[in-house]
Automatic annotation (TrEMBL):
Its main location: membrane. Keywords: Cell membrane, Membrane, Transmembrane, Transmembrane helix, Transport. One of its GO terms (molecular function) is xanthine transmembrane transporter activity. Pfam families: Xan_ur_permease. It is found in: Cell membrane. It is a multi-pass membrane protein. GO terms for cellular component: plasma membrane. InterPro entries: NCS2, UacT-like, Xan_ur_permease. The chain crosses the membrane at residues 12-36, 42-62, 69-88, 94-114, 121-141, 161-178, 185-207, 227-255, 309-327, 333-356, 368-388, 394-417. Coiled coil: none annotated. This is Purine permease.
Length: 442
């Protein structure tokens, strides 16, 4: 491969930023309004998310003696954390979100030492059920936003439904007729196109962009010092463990792409860096971070495997995070346009859960029962939380969270029904993870 000069490295790094940008900014765009943030706070949340994406990426790529996989991988917020963060924020406040993120990051760093042992308790029948529960629980958020956002006077108007449908159709068309890089940024392009159409319809206002400053400094604990709640910590820890398992698969698949054989020490260092990135996300009041598989796909597509390109992407993300006008520009996207993009994106979370479940042996009635009970109980407690109204508040905070109660149901039932298979070989589980993520990035 030809030697890359600084201009080419920067250009390729910016291409990585574009590939992950929609995935990075849509998380704060969803979570912020859902937990009651105003426009100024939302702009800051987007800025700090981009900044900490950059820090997390550099931590993983550059690494050190005890941290970092040292492969060309970008870190961003996992969609599986969106539903739990909204639930925690609405039930216990925004500071409880960051307390849970910090605590779960510390737990991830500890668990990274024992990942091979932990994976036994999270086979596809468990992780697939958990991810499916999270994905299905997000669909009401997408549909409410597609209608214009709950409480909005224009909720359900023809204009909102048109914009949501247009955005959704554009994503589908781009994924049908384009491949590679254009497909990777289809969501970003559809959001831009939907916003342009909304502007000509008189819906978009640039007031927030005009009022935003050109530069600001990041501030730890911007939204307040974290508070630590047991049920919130348990929720985010479950999400973090699922992310650890997915990231292990991403690392193994990326190792194949980069022709580098990874050993257990490399995996531990990668997961340890991911845990530290989650802690940093909590301190800066942003999000928990995990490896983005779409950027692994870009590495496989371009055949550019040098870490310098991703280091450049990390620096670009940090610079963008210091420019409030960039974040404010993102906030002008109408809710209906966002909602149209959320439907396939959250649907993909459900699809990921189904993909994980596809490797499960459903000829065994036990596995059918695990999936049926965990998803049924998880969704039931989320849809009808009043069923637990007579329980003590400390217990209610735990069981009213459908993701937690559904996940615990899957884990416990797996222990009951599949206790013999829990002792299956570590190598088989790692090989399955690698194969899953190799298929995903092709």
């Amino acid at each position: 491969m030809e030697k890359l000069n600084s201009w080419k490295v920067g250009t390729l790094g910016f291409q990585h930023v574009l590939a992950m940008y929609a995935g990075a900014v849509i998380v704060p765009l969803i979570v912020g309004p859902a937990i009651g943030l105003n426009a100024e706070q939302l702009a800051y949340l987007i800025s700090i998310d981009l900044f900490t994406c950059g820090i997390a990426t550099l931590l993983q790529v550059i690494g050190g003696k005890h941290f970092g996989i040292r492969l060309p991988v970008i870190l961003g917020c996992t969609f599986t954390a969106v539903g739990p963060m909204i639930a925690i924020g609405n039930m216990q406040g925004i500071t409880a979100i960051y307390g849970a993120i910090i605590a779960s990051g510390i737990i991830v760093m500890i668990l990274s030492q024992f990942m091979s042992k932990i994976m036994r308790f999270f086979p596809p029948v468990v992780t697939g059920s958990v991810v499916a529960i999270i994905g299905v629980s997000l669909i009401p958020v997408a549909m409410n936003n597609a209608a214009g956002g709950q409480g909005d006077p224009s909720f359900g108007s023809l204009e909102n439904l048109f914009l949501a449908t247009l955005t959704l159709v554009l994503i589908i068309v781009m994924n049908r007729f384009f491949k590679g890089y254009m497909r990777a940024i289809s969501v970003l392009l559809s959001l831009i196109a939907g916003t342009i159409v909304a502007y000509f319809m008189g819906i978009v206002s640039f007031a927030e962009v005009s009022n935003a400053s050109w530069f600001h400094l990041v501030q730890p604990f911007y939204f307040g010092f974290p508070t630590f709640n047991v049920s919130a910590i348990l929720t985010m820890t479950l999400v973090a463990i699922v992310s650890m398992i997915e990231s292990t698969g991403v690392f193994l698949a990326l190792g194949d792409v980069c022709e580098k054989k990874l050993d257990s020490k490399d995996i531990k260092k990668g997961l340890r860096a991911e845990g530290l990135a989650v802690v940093i996300g909590g301190i800066f009041n942003s999000f928990p971070y995990t490896s983005f598989s779409q950027n692994v796909g870009l590495v496989a597509l371009t055949k550019v495997k040098t870490r310098n390109v991703v280091i450049a992407a990390g620096v670009i993300l940090m610079i963008l995070g210091l420019l409030p006008k960039v974040a404010a520009l993102t906030t002008i996207i109408p809710m209906a346009v966002l909602g149209g993009a959320m439907i396939p994106m959250f649907g993909m979370v459900i699809s990921s859960g189904i993909r994980m479940l596809s490797s499960v042996d459903f000829s065994k009635n036990e596995n059918l029962l695990i999936v049926a009970c965990s998803i049924g109980i998880g969704l039931g407690s989320a849809v009808v939380p009043a069923i637990f109204g007579n329980l003590p508040e400390s217990v209610r905070l735990l069981v009213e969270n459908g993701i937690v109660v559904g996940s615990l149901t899957a884990i416990l039932l797996n222990l009951v029904f599949n206790y013999k298979e829990i002792n299956s070989s570590k190598s088989e589980q790692l090989e399955q993870l690698k194969n899953d993520h190799s298929m995903e990035i092709i």
